[in-house]
Amino acid sequence: MDNTMSKPNILFIMVDDHRYNAIRALGNTEVNTPNLDRLVREGTTLTHTYIMGSTSPAVCMPSRAMLLTGRSLFHAMTDEPINPYPIAEHVKMLPELFREAGYQTFGTGKWHNPRSNFARSFAGGGSIFFGGMSDHDAVPVFDYDPDGIYPDDKKYTAEKFSTELFGDEAIGFLQQQDGQQPFFLYTAFTAPHDPRTPPAEFAYDPDQITLPENFLPEHPFDNGEMRIRDEVLAPFPRTPDVIRQHIADYYGMITHLDAKVGQLLQTLDDQGLAENTLVVYTGDHGLAVGQHGLMGKQNLYDHSTRVPLILRGPGIPANQRHDALCYLYDLFPTLCELTDQPIPPTNEGNSLVSLIKGEKTTHRSSIFSVYQATRHIDAPGKYQRMVREGDYKLIAYAVDGNHRVQLFDLKNDPLEMHDLASDPAQQDRIAHLRQVLAAWQQEVDDPALQLTS
Fold first, then answer.
1. 1 lies in a domain?
2. Is 134 left (phi over 0), alpha (psi -120 to 50) or beta?
3. Based on the structure, what is the number of domains in the chain?
4. Residue 171: C-alpha distances to residues 5, 13, 260, 395 (Å)
5. Are 53 and 64 in contact (CB under 8 A)?
6. Residue ranges in 231-301 assigned as alpha helix (H)
7. CB of 167 within 8 A of CB of 259?
8. For the chain, percent of residues with pLDDT exceeding 90
9. CATH code at 130?
10. How far is CA 5 from CA 2, 11, 99, 219, 236, in A?
């Protein structure tokens, strides 16, 4: 008997711009997410999952590369100065690994990495979007190309809203499964990324939206990215009415997405696949949407660097939450371990299985994140670096030769509203966190060191 037949399936749901706490079951009572709430009840949630950041304003690109390779930011992609950055040929990608292990791999939705990397990963697919963003009702897509070329003259504009388009493609794949071969289904929605145009039946009344406690009309200082594309989606200074409308549209996109997730889960039930399918729900990064006077994700506050991470299925305890610090790319070895796949030597992630099973309560002692500063492109004199150790978080900024830091006590100030950097009592802590950050930068060969040496 083929031993792959007993392996659990994987339904991997990746979304775009979904902030870690924009789920009702995780504390946000203004957004309706009944199906994600169901996943939280039936699975395990890692509530403090961070991305390691980005060397590009398109944060989704390196974030997805880290997830796909299980490698840290400066090792996930090659140094070639092209966009999107390629993933090296010798580095195994997650779906590629499962494909080689006998899984039927199928990809639909957003792939913001090179087309050749998609071709290595998937034996099938449909409604494939190579790019960062598009209008949700006019997505340029490809059918699956068995030759892996995806020439531009084969691209066409889909006729469905993106969430319906990609979700229906995944549902169609699930309906064809007979249980004879395990599958790895990668469903990458572009929602809730802008342009945020939810269907009318999912619209929220902006007058019923509560303004975030950390709303500001403008960011208190120049962080180096004050006028990037995401930041000019709303006028300056930000006003309460404008931000409430943006949040209403954001929630509408999430609730529409949640409905499609519910259909995917129902299809698993209808096909008799749910019991042997690992479901993963996560995002590539968060989003500010008015917090700290910002709109986008080109910053290192928690609203932009933390993502939802929910797992459900065989071997996953129900209705459990863990607040241990972890990276999104820790999912790579986690899924390998949960499916008895060998972890490739290129992996740099730490499996979450012991944490998920309750065998330990901590995972990483510190977390780091990055924005900007590369060896080749983007404004080299403007970058941000972050370290979190325990409850304290330091963000360091460099903007055209000017340097400053912020310090937050996240236990008492989870919305990062009270900067402690000028507190004399915190100077030893700041010095220590600077040392921790500098040591990590040396360890990972951070390009920013070249700019300060």
1. no
2. beta
3. 2
4. 21, 12, 10, 42
5. no
6. 240-270
7. no
8. 87
9. 3.40.720.10
10. 6, 16, 14, 54, 57
Q: Is the pLDDT of residue 380 over 90?
A: no
**Is residue 376 over pLDDT 60?**
no
pLDDT digits (tens, 9 = 90+) for 338-347: 999 999 999 9
Angle at 7 between CA 5 and CA 10, to 5 degrees: 115
pLDDT digits (tens, 9 = 90+) for 53-78: 998 888 999 999 999 999 999 999 87
Same domain, 284 and 384: no
Determine the structural domain holding residue 284 and report its residue range: 7-364
Which whole number is the average pLDDT over 103-110?
A: 98
Backbone angles phi, psi at 101, to 5 degrees: -90, 5
383 and 352 assigned to the same domain: no
Query: How many other C-beta atoms lie within 10 A of the C-beta of residue 151?
Result: 10
The Cα 158–Cα 32 span in angstroms is 28
Residues 284 and 371 in one domain: no
Within this chain, do residues 64 and 194 fall inside the same structural domain, yes or no?
yes
Confidence of residue 2 (pLDDT cuts 50, 70, 90): very low
Question: Does the predicted TM-score (pTM) go above 0.85?
Answer: yes
